[in-house]
């Protein structure tokens, strides 16, 4: 997560990340420390180390897992959510359901 000065509403996520130097920091963390970043579709095309959702069917398990993690992290905390992490608690892989037909989220 990053915080920066306000940009005009028409500024694309990726353009703002480049302008603030945030994109360079993400890429450096990936290259030097082996820490890739998970990002939403607004960062598609950001380059090495910035992982965005993969489109298409018949995806490799790594891509399916990344898409699931991104979706879970973005999920709303409601009864229809696939993410069962209560607000204010750290996220864990066990909080995400694997299939679309998963039961209602468990509450801890």
Q: Which helices and strands, and how do they pair?
A:
Layout: H1 13-20, H2 22-33, E1 37-38, E2 50-51, H3 61-74
Parallel strand pairs: 1-2
Structural category: mainly alpha
Largest sheet: 2 strands, parallel
Please tell me how large the radius of gyration is.
16 Å
Strand content: under 5%
- The arrangement of helices and strands along the chain is HHEEH
Distance between the termini: 25 Å
- The number of helical segments is 3
- The spatial strand order of the largest sheet comes to 1-2
Low-confidence stretches: 98-108
Question: Can you describe this structure?
Answer:
The protein is mainly alpha-helical and 108 residues long. It contains 3 helices and 2 strands. It has a two-stranded parallel sheet with strand order 1-2.
Summary keywords:
disordered C terminus, 3 helices, single chain, mainly alpha, two-stranded parallel sheet, 108 residues
């Amino acid at each position: 997560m990053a915080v920066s000065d306000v940009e005009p509403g028409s500024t694309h996520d990726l353009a703002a990340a480049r302008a603030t130097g945030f994109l360079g920091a993400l890429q450096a963390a990936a290259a030097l420390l082996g820490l890739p970043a998970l990002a939403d579709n607004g960062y598609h095309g950001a380059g090495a180390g910035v992982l965005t959702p993969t489109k298409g069917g018949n995806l490799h398990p790594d891509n399916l897992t990344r898409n699931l993690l991104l979706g879970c992290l973005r999920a709303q905390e409601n009864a229809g959510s696939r993410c069962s992490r209560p607000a204010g608690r750290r996220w864990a892989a066990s909080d995400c359901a694997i299939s679309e037909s998963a039961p209602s989220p468990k509450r801890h």
